[in-house]
Every structure is written in structure tokens, then in C-alpha cells.
Amino acid sequence: MSSTDGSGSTFFVTTPIYYVNDVPHVGHAYTTLNADAVARWHRLLGDEVLFLTGTDEHGLKVQRAADEAGLTALDHATATSDRFRSAWEMLNISNDDFIRTTEERHHLAVQALLSKAYDNGYIYADTYEGDYCVSCEAYYVEDDLVDGNCPIHKRPVEHMVEDNYFFKLSAFADQLTEWLEADAHSIRPTGYRNEALGIVRQGLDDVSISRTSISWGIPVPWDTDHVFYVWYDALINYATAAGYGADDADFDKWWPTTHHFLGKDILRFHGVYWPAMLLAAGITDLPELHVHGFLLIGGEKMSKSGGVTAIGPAEMVDEFGVDGFRYAMLRNHSFGPDSDFSYEAIVERFNSDLANTYGNLVSRVATVVGKKCGGIGPAPDPDATLATAARTAYAEAATAWEAVQPSVALDATWRLVREANEYLAENEPWKMEAGPEVDVVMGNALEAIRIATVMATPAMPEATEIAWKRIGMPGLAAEQRLPDAAVWGGYPGGVPVEVGDPIFPRFKPAS
RNA sequence: GGCGACGUAGCUCAGCUGGUAAGAGCGCUCGACUCAUAAUCGAGAGGUCGACAGUUCAAGUCUGUCCGUCGCUACCA
Fold first, then answer.
1. Nearest nucleotide to A59 by CA–C1' distance?
2. pLDDT by residue (tens digit) across A181-191?
3. Which burial class, exposed, middle or buried, applies to A510 when counting CB atoms under 10 A from its CB (0-12, 13-18, 19+)?
4. Residue extents of the structural domains in chain A
């Protein structure tokens, strides 16, 4: 199940598929960046990685938005889907696949998977009558309504009577409980696993999974008057991309190593409904979930309905650069709990960690090598004291990445960078005469930079390549293979070191 | 109402199954250095670990109550 031994395991990692009616914001970026960083770490380990993101495009809300815009639902979905695609390109997201739920391959997989559940007796027809909120695309019981309005959108509900297909969620309570209790890695961090257990314990009702009132969806194959309700088509995207129903060998290869990244708001769907659907279809390998909290602004939730201004990733990238933004997002927020997002915190982080500690280290080392070593980076000393720091940093970072704690991993990585700065202060190579003594000091500093740079590539794919070239390393930092590349002594020596402009110029707020 | 999370230095947070004299980064003060991006290095100040009670030889670390903040309770990461 775990795939971090670096021996060519597979690793399938996903983000949620984002609803096309949304505009990409910092929250979407947060989930996606964490998944991306973990995907990149696994590539460093030599794992074969399949990293999936995409867009969720069915449902009445999309259809109505398209009507308003005077477009077909598909054209509208395409236009909005592209906003996510370009946002992820801008953020250097290394997804291997981008799925759209409107794609043929997805329709086939959904129909195949749910047909299987139907054949297995877990889907049945029934009539549903109730008050329906179009915005939610959900029924409400009277107790939930606020003055006859939808409690979320505060708009009138519509009374509807529908023949629906229902998923026998109630049949899976025991299996879900067993899975959650037996597998400590089923849902992490643990708090969210407990929440999922709580949901199951509170009792599971069967859920309606089809609609006759809309056509913008995936037809129910055994009754084409119906389309599947958007959530039940959406979740299946993960299976689609892994090859479900299309390529059994592919599916068998990827599915056992599935890791879903998601925010806590959709824990119910991913931690309860989705595993039950898989079980209903006879798939007993259940995914691992990595659940994170919300980014808060001034302690308040950031969302449309929360009324807090949503911030676009593009403006953050304009301010801090792609890698500055990526690093700050990963380093400032512990993966799991809610945490405060602030511009000031990013500025602090950028200046402290990137400009002062890492960027400045590269600059000062390059300059001294230029002056004392003729611009040629010397080889490190195999027994340098810094070697211990490097070993510790790698061990801690590797553990943290494995546990999906990027902030911890980067903290560990930066300890090595700080120790390199300390090492220089202790040895004062700029005071020495050119010769073997300086060479050893500078070789060690360069080696520390090399190792830290490899370890930082998941967070900063561009800047690390610049640093990699500066210190004269051939190839790409991202092409290195861990753990070997983190072993002390990999810096070859005898290669040219270039001074260049600061990689991260210190940030001065516009004000 | 139900379920849950959180409350540790000015700020953001680490502190696993209880046991060396409570930690890190940032910020602040002082000092050093001058290779470097007004960067770096060192030293220091600063906390009765939300409150109360309990369990224990021993509690941020377990139990209970309370106070405070927040979230979820079908569809916004």
C-alpha cells in the first residue's frame, strides 16, 4: 500500500475535480499545490506517478449558468474548465491527466461502475417527493428549511416529485466502520477519520442518485429517462482516470495506490459515500484520503457564501512569483487543521526563508567560490560535520512527506540551509587565503546547497533548477533520485559556479 | 439541538503512547562580522502551556466540569 521505498512503486494521487461554476481561488490552489508537491516528491523517489486533477461539469447549476450565458452547456463548461486548466499551468502543477466529467471515457466508466452496483443489487428505484433547492441540487426536509427557504441559499425551494434511483448506502455501515477502524491510513489526519466514523455511526440513509428533471448529466444506462445526480458521477472520475472499465490492467496497477487530497467540506462524500460505492461495485481496495482544513482570513472561512473575498492565485503569483507563492502556501499552513492565510505572512516567509536564508546562501557561496576558488566549485569533505545535518534533514523530510506534512518537510529541509549559513560563519572562508582549506569549506557549502535544492524541488520547481545550474550541477534537480541524491558527497567538484542575480530578491511591499 | 476541533512565548505554530531544568521560526533588544539580497552569525528578553478540580511518585501531555473561539450537520478546497 505504501509506496515510498523508491523501488519503482506506483502512486496515484488526485485532487477533487473542481466545479466549473467556480472561479479558481486560493483554496483550490491550496489543495492542488499539496497534491502536486507530494506527487513531485514521489517522482523523486522513483515512483511511477499518476497525478490527476480536473473539472466537474454536470448538474443543473451548470446548465442554468449556460442558459444565462446563451451557450450550450458543453461550451460553457469548456470555457470555465479552461480557467482551471490555465490556473494550474500558471502554478506549475505537474498533473499527468486532466479529466472532465463530460468526456466520453468518463461516461463509460460511470455507467460501467454504477451498472455493476445495480447488478449487485445496491441500486433500486423509488419515488421521491420533497422540497428541492435548485442551487443546492438537493432535497430538504421541512425541518431544515428557514422560513420555507433553502437554509444555504435563502431562496424558495421547489416542490418536486420524482422517480429516483437510490443507492443502498445503509448496507455498508459495517464495512465502512471496519475499514475506518482497521486502517489507520484510511483517512488522515486522524481527526478526520474519527469524523467519518461519526458520520457512519449516526446512521446512514439510502441516497437518491438520479434525476429525471434534468438532462445535463450522464444517462442511467438501464433507464435513460434518468441521469445520474452530479455527485455520484463526479466521484467516479478517479476510477475513470485509473482506467476503470476501459483497461483492467491499468486499473489494477493504479487503484491500489490511490491517494485522494480533499478539503474537509467534502469528507462525507469521499470518506463515506465513495468507499461505499466502490464496495457496491465490488472494488474492495479503498483509497487513502488526505484531508485538510480551510484557509481562513482573519479567522473566518473563505468562500462565496461566507462573504469573505476570494483571492485569485494569479495575483499571488504576480506578487511573489510561482515558487514564492508555492513555497509559502506549503510552508505556512500545516496540512490538516484550519489555518490563517495572510499576505503579511507570505511576505515574511518569502523574505526570511527564500531571500535571506536560501537565496542569500546561494549568492554568498557563489561569490566566495568566485573569489577564492577561481569560480570552480570544489568537492566536499566526506567527513564534514554538515553531513550529519544533511542526513538528519533528509530523514525528517522524508518522513514528513510520507505523512503528507509538507510544512514539516520544508521546515526540516530549511534547517539544513540554516546550518550551512552557520557553517560559513564559523569558518569564515572569505578571510582565508585561496587553497585547500577554503576549497573544503566551499565544497561542503555547495554540497549542502545541492542536497537542500533537490529536497526543495517539490515546493519550488523553477527556482531549484536555477540554483542547480548556478552551482554547476548537470541535468535537472527534479531528475535526481532519492534517497541516493541526498547522500553526502554527491557534489562532484571541478564544476563552474556562477554568481548571477539573486534568485529571490527580497520582497518589499508596494505600500 | 447533535457531532467535532481548537485555546502553549508579541505573531504562526511543534510538543507521539504522561517522566531530562517548556521548544522552533518570525518579530524585538544587544553584540559580532562584512563573503552575501540593509542579507549572515552569536547572545538575550519574553510563557504560572485558557480556568478549576481530579488521577498519579510524576501532567501542556490522562479524566471531569467550566470559559472562550471556530467548524460540520448532503452538495463552496
1. B75
2. 887 788 888 77
3. exposed
4. 10-292, 344-496
